[in-house]
Design brief:
By secondary structure, this protein is α/β, with parallel strands linked by helices. Helix content is 40%, strand content 24%. 55% of the residues are buried.
Length: 468
């Protein structure tokens, strides 16, 4: 076992206690993790507050150089990070490596951005400019599905803008964040990044802490509402990237076999534990049977195994609580529709769910209404395209969605009718650190990535100079 430590004020330190970290492929502990108490949380915030004046005073180019150095250090240890990510999160090794490399790209993309003054007016009467100022200390609360790259989505813009950071990883996937803390300790001034771990007991204190100027949270909509409530007392700035129930609408000119294969990948990546995974597919009645048959074939043929093993395509569900929730959901689905592949947990150690396809299910079934967050896909048929769009939009969520068809103009027109922060055509989950990502409805507040995501970590300020 490695001795993992918290990062507080530049020092790698033990927690007040420890907890076990479970490998979801075995269901057994493979490491221990330090756990902070509230006094250590206060110390981490105090360190970030103390570090803020000097860090924010650095020229942005110098801050960018430190972020680029973090990218170089992460890339140099990419294999070690990927192995640890697979062990604590469960995803297959190739997917873990892709996440780590994606995190490197995200750091570099933000390191290349700049916050230039925006000239609103410049004439003989006045010069009016808008500048962007850092907020202070950012509290970053991370989920367990993509703990490495989602940390960078918050850390990189926060630091570039001149803020300091207190990060709290999910209790079930803390280790890659702590390992990244060792890089921060080497590259950044003390207090600029602090990392504390908990057992789901410090999120409220972090969100409500008077020393925190902004909270950036990624996770469920239910928890996001709690973060928003905790932040309200001091009117903290917030970014909430929350749950999704992404619909894929397949048009009648789509190739059913080719499209089914892409839909399967968009639904089953990371064992379906992706906020923007395809959670519902609406398929024209004319190609419905062929489409479902191909999905069932793919699900049956998929290699479900420990992500550390060669050839694994789908790993376990990340934690016991989500595993139990999915088992209950699958029991209901067998009554609400026709299960044509999977439909149950695998009889083996760990938190493995068989890739599941459910057809002939109605829109009011829980498997359709709620975010499954597992390797489960309900497939619904339609005869009227307008009705399919209305059904796809009949959700409290609005994170992403996609439309699939040969006629790109027609598909784009349908995509524009989706009530989501992002709508893709003939692809899904296509993200870039330079393209903004937002949620509509109860899928989020604010946004991440791109220059707009960088602006989320700043206070806009108008400077209005009279002339003459």
């Amino acid at each position: 076992m490695t001795h993992f430590k918290l990062l507080i004020d530049g020092a790698l330190t033990d927690g007040a206690r420890t907890m076990d970290v479970i490998n979801p492929a075995t269901g057994e502990a493979f490491e221990t993790c330090p756990v902070a108490d509230e006094a250590q949380l206060d110390a981490a915030v105090a360190a970030a507050v103390a570090a803020f004046p000097a860090w924010s005073a650095l020229p942005i180019g110098e801050r960018a150089a430190r972020i680029a150095a973090l990218a170089d250090a992460l890339q140099a240890r990419a294999d070690a990070f990927a192995r640890l990510l697979t062990a604590e999160q469960g995803k297959p090794g190739n997917q873990a490596k892709m996440e780590v490399i994606g995190a490197v790209f995200t750091l570099r993309a933000f390191a290349a951005m700049r916050l230039e003054p925006h000239v609103i007016r410049d004439d003989d009467k006045a010069r009016i400019i808008e500048v962007r100022r850092p907020l202070g200390v950012v509290g970053a609360i991370l989920p367990w599905n993509f703990p490495v790259i989602l940390l960078m989505n918050k850390l990189a813009p926060a630091l570039l803008a001149g803020n300091t950071l207190v990060a709290k990883p999910a209790p079930t996937t803390p280790l890659t964040t702590l390992l990244f803390g060792t890089l921060c300790a080497e590259i950044l001034p003390p207090g600029v990044v602090n990392i504390i771990c908990d057992e789901n007991d410090l999120g409220g204190a972090l969100s409500a802490h008077p020393g925190i100027a902004k909270v950036s949270f990624t996770g469920s909509t239910a928890t996001g509402k709690k973060v928003m409530q905790a932040a309200a007392a001091t009117l903290k700035r917030i970014t909430l990237e929350l749950g999704g129930n992404d619909a894929a609408i397949i048009l009648d000119d789509a190739d059913p076999i080719e499209t089914a294969r892409k839909i399967f990948q968009g639904a089953m990546a990371n064992a379906g534990q992706v906020c923007i995974a395809i959670k519902r597919a609406y398929v024209p009645e004319a190609i419905y049977d062929v489409f479902c048959e191909e999905l069932a074939r793919l699900a049956t043929a998929a290699v479900v195994d420990d992500g550390a093993k060669q050839g694994a395509q789908i790993g376990p569900v990340q934690n016991a609580a989500q595993y139990e929730r999915l088992k209950t959901l699958l029991d209901e689905s067998a009554r609400e529709g026709k299960v044509i592949a999977g439909g149950a947990a695998l009889d083996r150690p760990g938190f493995f769910i068989a890739p599941t396809i459910v057809r002939d299910v109605t829109d009011d079934a829980r498997i359709v209404r709620e975010e499954q967050f597992g390797p489960v896909l309900p497939v619904l048929s339609y005869t009227d395209l307008d009705d399919a769009v209305a059904r796809a939009n009949a959700s409290e969520f609005g994170l992403g969605g996609s439309v699939w068809g040969t006629d790109l103009d027609r598909a784009t027109d349908i995509a524009l009718r989706l009530q989501s922060g992002t709508a893709w055509v003939n692809q899904h989950m296509a993200l870039s650190p330079t393209v903004p990502f937002r949620g509509a409805k109860q899928s989020g507040v604010g946004g991440e990535l791109g220059l707009e995501g960088l602006h989320e970590y700043t206070q806009a300020m108008i400077v209005n100079v009279a002339r003459g």
